[in-house]
Amino acid sequence: MSKKAFNLNLEGLRGFAAIGVMVGHIFYHDKYFDDRYCPTILKSLVPNAHLEVLIFFVLSGFVIGISHPTRMQGASIREYLKKRLLRIYPIYLIGMLLSLFVAGFHYDARTIAANLTITQNISRPVIWEDNPAWSINYEMLYYLLFIPISFFRIRPVIAFVVALALGIISIYITPVPQLITGYFIGFSFWLIGLILAKNLQGNLQVRLLPLLFYILAIQNLFVHYRITSFFNRIRPIPDKPGFWYQTIVNINDLALMPFCFMIVLYFSGRTFKGKNLVFILLTLLPLRLMRGSWLLHERDSVLIFGIVYFALFLVTSAIPFFNKTVGMGLAKIGGISYAIYILHFPLLCLFGKIVLLDQPVVNYWVKLALYVPLVGIVSWALEKKFQPLLKHRILAKKLAVPEGL
């Protein structure tokens, strides 16, 4: 597979994940978008989009591993930090300022300072009007942790085992905050991407549409799954206080870890011996969860749609179906996915303050028809115009030759 196709696939996955997060928030936080109406059936179609955020973690580790194949030291570390900060912070800052505007600047100075310095979660809450920004704090920490991994040539597999072990052990140590457990568990996802980048090769052709249905199926079928029951059998997990942004990544996410690994593996075109067997075994697990006891739930429609998505995955796996068209469309969205991720929630909250029409149903659909394109346009302007211009000016200033030389 060519580098162009390779990038297309990963950008497509990034674009799909960004759409999943945005759409998931529209319906999961429906009261913030429109407190008068929300179509119930759509809430069943797209449950909590947490899986997409975990996929973003794996993708991040993968991209960093591909971008920095050799040991970093000295100047290369400084350049790495500059590039990461330039990539993340300008759009992040715009998102935060928009969030504060939407919130009416009612947050205290310490909370604002923590969010502006990407140190939210630790001692201060994330600004709710841009609550997806909780994950940027995780990302920045993992970027920093990559430096010693690269500098000391630590094998990603070893780092993964250590991070995962510390994450599991920390849940049983009462004085250790839940946030620390979340950092370790999230870092183990990030390191999976690094392992894919450093240890696996391949140039396999990728069928995008079946994989997209597979992501939706896994997301729906595992919406109620809790792995804590397994760990409680080993030793009861102590109850620790913590706010949502400190506990959002937790031990239950380990149930999704092998799926995130296989999803990014397939999208990247990489392979290993026995890959198809592992994928089949993982596929049998959702089939196991389709038993009747799982459908006897107050949100059984979510699981029913999971079965529908799984059936579509099987059907599209057997029939070639618009692979290139799907890939190109999602890749374009992937190119602006970071801005979508940062900006969609403050814009969602802003639209929640607007009533265009008296009729709730019509008002909702008109708002939605305006909201989605606006997110796309603003994200495109920031990613494709603002960010390149800023980068050009910073680099031009750095490369400017003083007069007389």
Mean of residue pLDDT values: 88
What is the end-to-end distance? 47 Å
* Strand-residue proportion: under 5%
Radius of gyration, in Å, reads 22 Å
Total count of helical runs of at least 4 residues: 19
Query: How many DSSP E strands?
Result: 0
Task: For this entry, give a set of tags.
mainly alpha, disordered C terminus, 405 residues, 0% strand
Annotate the secondary structure layout.
Elements: H1 3-28, H2 30-33, H3 40-45, H4 50-67, H5 75-103, H6 109-116, H7 134-151, H8 156-170, H9 178-199, H10 208-221, H11 228-234, H12 244-247, H13 257-268, H14 275-288, H15 292-295, H16 300-318, H17 323-334, H18 337-352, H19 360-399
Helix pairs in contact: 1-4, 1-17, 1-18, 4-7, 4-9, 4-13, 5-7, 5-18, 5-19, 8-9, 9-13, 10-13, 10-16, 18-19
